[in-house]
Amino acid sequence: DGRLRLSRQGVIFKNSKTGKVDNIQASELAEGVWRRVALGHGLKLLTKNGHVYKYDGFRESEFDKLSDFFKAHYRLELAEKDLCVKGWNWGTVRFGGQLLSFDIGEQPVFEIPLSNVSQCTTGKNEVTLEFHQNDDAEVSLMEVRFYVPPTQEDGVDPVEAFAQNVLSKADVIQATGDAICIFRELQCLTPRGRYDIRIYPTFLHLHGKTFDYKIPYTTVLRLFLLPHKDQRQMFFVISLDPPIKQGQTRYHFLILLFSKDEDISLTLNMNEEEVEKRFEGRLTKNMSGSLYEMVSRVMKALVNRKITVPGNFQGHSGAQCITCSYKASSGLLYPLERGFIYVHKPPVHIRFDEISFVNFARGTTTTRSFDFEIETKQGTQYTFSSIEREEYGKLFDFVNAKKLNIKNRGLKEGMKQSYDEYADSDEDQHDAYLERMKEEGKIREENANDSSDGSGEETDESFNPGEEDDDVAEEFDSNASASSSSGDGDSDRDEKKPAKKAKIVKDRKPRKKQLESKKGKDPNAPKRPMSAYMLWLNANREKIKSDHPGISITDLSKKAGELWKAMSKERKEEWDRKAEDARRDYEKAMKEYSVGSKSESSKTERSKKKKKKQEKQTKGKVEKKGAASKSLSSTKTPAKNMSESFKSKEFVSSDESSSGESKKEDSEEEGAASLPPSSEESASGSD
């Protein structure tokens, strides 16, 4: 935002935030364009030396006034040009002064000030423009790619022509002069490949087969020199911010891998006086030694930053790192003096001051590894898995010495105890299952001891408490009878089968009880009293809503929590008293309710007992009747057969025989009912 002032001498704009002033002389103005933009209408001014100035926020009604002013004082026609809003992504690129304009027909779609371009790279039929990062903006455009179709013209490459037009006006890092030194064919892990590294006074140039990167020394945050676990290789890690880009991929770390055996003799492309003046003894014109030492020494002198090396940590094998896995790939975790760094895919650097807590997870006596979890204060979690169990003691001592917050502290009495609380470990699940099986075995043994003759039939019955599942009981009986006739081995097998069924019944029962208890909650029971905070919230909810219209439920509860926290002790005491009164009322109501409910429950219990008694009596009678009728029918059947044998089938009609049988059955039932229930044998004898 700012103020625009038009005078006869020229145009002056003052930025209200930075105080920067744009002063355009009237004699320098070459063209003025009026167009509709996102914020109302805008004015674009082009100067004779190629600079472009754009101002937005005008009203449509101001066009006539501005047009007349430009005609009268600047002798310029204020042209009206609308932007193209078709949404097409193909058109023509025009270069005019410091501006790249992408047009469809005669209408511009967008314009890019070439002074904002930091890098221009070419590919096959493609040009990529990268831009300087804008520190003031929350979101800034970093990259635009143009597809340039091939043309039939000989000798002119349209891609190169496009790139040269951009580079002639762009604020690109130019490799002017000769490099101080060049390291050829260095192995790079990220971005992967072999690169030549040219060292310039202000930037580092990575030159590969497909990609080129120019890295200003100002973007280098840290340097790390880390020995590989095999003691034959070295990692040299350069931390970058902003990162280098390759398409959609961002590389925050540049990782070089060196063999310790590689040596190099290096001569700097400077005379001895310049070397001494610039580097003050840190470098000399002629140097020789290991390749990794030379690269790190040169980088340290040019970037002017310390090189971080591993501290006094030593793992189980004597290495200064721990082999582990992060996400999908295996790598090395280096505990440093002020943080952790993981190499290499993806590289991760975590400083101690960022860490909220660390956690040792999922290790048992049978499992040969554990996980090391790190959670940062921002809530990001890093899990380094498959760490050998032998590394646990060393890593724990290191973390303890650095005074990092350990989530499961106090459980370091041994590996197993340290992880017993993790229910998701495989060992724990098997233990729980084993305990359950032991309990079931004990129950089986007790039931087997209780049975009189040791047959499978009685164990089946004892494992089927409650007769609500009749089908299961019958199935068990048939299995049991079959097993009793077959050998002891079969009966043992059958004894195991019903045990499984019994377990299912056993597991189901408590669930039913829980459901019944939930369903049977008395709606007349007194409600629990509210806390002081809830009483206050109910009283002030509408007030908070009116003060913050449109507030969501979660935001309302957060706001209420803040208000309650900020409230004075005296005001809180008032609500505490109200809560105390509510609690007393609740206790009083509960006493009254419990007395009433006890009397009701005793009545219902009595009525239930009576019903049960009646059911038992009727059941006993029915069983005895059935037994008597069975004995009578068995004795009378031969007599009945004798009487029927005297009658020929031709003379007996079906109606008569059926009526006769029904009459006999009726008389038998009456006889069985009239007999005393105790003596079944005497009844059959007298009959």
TrEMBL record:
Biased composition annotated in UniProt, kind: Acidic residues: 455-477
Top-level lineage group: Eukaryota
UniProt signal peptide: none
GO cellular component: FACT complex; nucleolus
Polar residues bias (residue ranges): 630-642
Entries under Pfam families matching the protein: HMG_box (PF00505), PH1_SSRP1-like (PF21103), POB3_N (PF17292), Rttp106-like_middle (PF08512), SSrecog (PF03531), SSRP1_C (PF21092)
Positions of the DNA-binding region: 526-594
Basic and acidic residues composition-biased segments: 513-525, 615-626
Localisation per UniProt entry: Nucleus, Nucleolus; Nucleus; Chromosome
Bias-annotated ranges (Low complexity): 478-488, 672-687
Alphabetized GO MF terms: DNA binding; histone binding; nucleosome binding
Keyword DNA-binding carried by entry: yes
Alphabetical list of InterPro entries matching this protein: HMG_box_dom (IPR009071), HMG_box_dom_sf (IPR036910), PH-like_dom_sf (IPR011993), RTT106/SPT16-like_middle_dom (IPR013719), RTT106/SSRP1_HistChap/FACT (IPR050454), SSRP1-like_PH1 (IPR048993), SSRP1/POB3 (IPR000969), SSRP1/POB3_N (IPR035417)
Keyword Transcription: yes
Domain HMG box: 526-594
Comp. bias regions, Basic residues: 498-512
Keywords, sorted A to Z: Chromosome, DNA damage, DNA repair, DNA replication, DNA-binding, Nucleus, Transcription, Transcription regulation
Transmembrane intervals: none
Protein name per its UniProtKB record: FACT complex subunit SSRP1
